[in-house]
Design a protein that fits this description.
The protein has 435 residues and is an alpha+beta fold. Helix content is 35%, strand content 20%.
């Protein structure tokens, strides 16, 4: 492209090595990232895959920084950090606004950029910061729906960009040496203090108060700001855990959002708040490609416990309890771990039963008069410690540690029961007729 897109009156093509002043970290970070998108479009394609926008070898992709929009509904000209132009059969454009370090997105500023996008026929606004969201189409900023009828609002965390770059590198699908080198340099850049890239490291100050209130049976109110603050932090932490799993396994892992929350981050936060208020618990599931089932995390604030597990349907072709237990036992490689248990769900209304993994034997239920059978097993790891829950940092550290530990010790070996294909019936009437 020799000229600027029609939506802009000014702008410079993004540069990998920016000549901007070192004090302007946000523009430098934006310029570097957008230049990498232009050189390695596979990275941008990975990041925006859920938006429906496709990027291939025939796609025209241009990126700009230090831009000015052609039309502005505001008296003072707004200056978003960047602009992305994509052309396949149709054009797709996006304004880009980035924050680095501890700087958070500003509601007023993002609102102005969405209004600028509407005025110029720009399809979307992409925000980038160290704030976490479970999906790119769920923003940390809540805007009125009327503003988003013609403009989409997307969000990328620097942590997600780093994770996606690592994932792309580990897939070994990029054979071009130049692209591989640029991706490796971007990873180094994002791991540096240049953007202040950070993980979610601690719960808010209200965390310990909420946990203490839950442990003594206090009743929470919907209007309690502490609950809102804690649930918002858990949205970020659950999103971080999904990225940790992605980095650890080299495959794309995601949070499993409730159906009503898929298109609205605040709805998911509201669901977490309801669980804390009504159950004193926070629950999240994670989808892992080709795993036996979703990995489930349950945080019990009242009992100061963390539970991580994966449910398996009990085999229906084993008629005895011992047969079902033997089926599970063969999948468990480590049985002497003190944090490991199995939750047994019965086909009747009997309460779930928790059994220490080291005690799970084929004749465990021999002396009990049971008139039901096992519906499912959930191998799990549990951590119970008021000391950990009283520490805003240690809680995050131990939560993330036990999730990875559970996967490594148990989840990677688990397989769901699959019924065998039916065998032909011998001497059937049809066989006799054919003869």
């Amino acid at each position: 492209m020799q000229t600027l897109p029609k939506q802009l009156i000014s702008g410079k093509q993004s540069r990998l090595f920016s000549s901007l002043k070192l004090s302007n970290k946000e523009l430098i970070a934006t310029s570097t990232l957008l230049a990498v998108f232009r050189i390695v479009p596979e990275l941008l394609a990975e990041l925006i895959k859920d938006t429906g926008i496709k990027i291939n070898n025939r796609t025209v992709l241009e990126t700009y920084t230090e831009i000015g929009v052609a039309k502005s509904p505001h008296t003072k000209n707004d200056r978003p950090d960047g602009f992305i132009y994509i052309k396949n059969r149709n054009e797709w454009t996006s304004l880009v606004e980035a924050k680095v370090g501890n700087n958070s997105l500003n509601l007023e500023q993002v609102t102005k950029y969405v209004e600028d996008a509407r005025a110029n026929g720009i399809d979307s606004v992409i925000t980038i910061s160290n704030e976490f969201t479970p999906r790119v189409d769920l923003s940390p900023i809540t805007l009125p729906k009327r503003l988003l009828t013609k403009v989409k609002l997307y969000h990328l965390s620097w942590r997600l960009i780093l994770s996606s770059a690592i994932l792309l590198k580990n897939k070994n699908e990029i054979e071009d040496r130049e692209k591989s080198f640029v991706i490796e340099e971007l990873i180094k850049f994002l791991r540096d203090d240049s953007v202040g890239n950070k993980s979610f490291t601690q719960m808010p100050a209200s965390w310990t108060q909420v946990c203490n209130d839950a442990s003594i049976g206090a009743k929470f109110k919907n209007s309690d700001p502490n609950i809102a603050e804690v649930s918002n932090a858990l949205v970020e932490e659950f999103s971080e855990i999904a990225l940790n799993l992605t980095d650890h396994l080299g495959v794309d892992c995601n949070t499993k959002l409730p159906y009503a929350s898929k298109n609205n981050r605040s709805e998911w936060q509201s669901e977490i708040s309801k669980d804390i208020i009504n159950k004193k618990k926070a629950i999240c599931s994670f989808s892992i490609p080709n795993a036996a089932n979703e990995l489930e995390v349950e945080i019990d604030l009242a009992k100061n416990s963390i539970m991580v597990g994966m449910e398996l349907k009990a085999p229906e072709d084993r008629s005895t309890l011992s047969g079902k237990i033997n089926w599970l036992s063969r999948q468990l490689k480590v049985k002497d771990d003190k944090k490991s248990f199995v939750k047994v769900r019965w086909k009747s209304r009997a309460s779930d039963e928790f059994i220490e993994l080291s005690k799970l034997e084929s004749d465990y239920f021999r002396e009990r008069d049971l008139n039901t059978t096992i519906l499912s097993f959930t191998p799990l790891m549990q951590l119970h410690s008021s000391k950990i829950f009283n520490s805003r940092k240690n809680f995050i550290t131990e939560l993330e540690k036990i999730v990875i530990e559970f996967y490594d010790i148990h989840a990677q070996y688990l397989k769901q029961w699959v019924p065998k294909a039916p065998k032909p019936i011998e001497n059937s009437d049809i066989d006799e007729e054919l003869e």
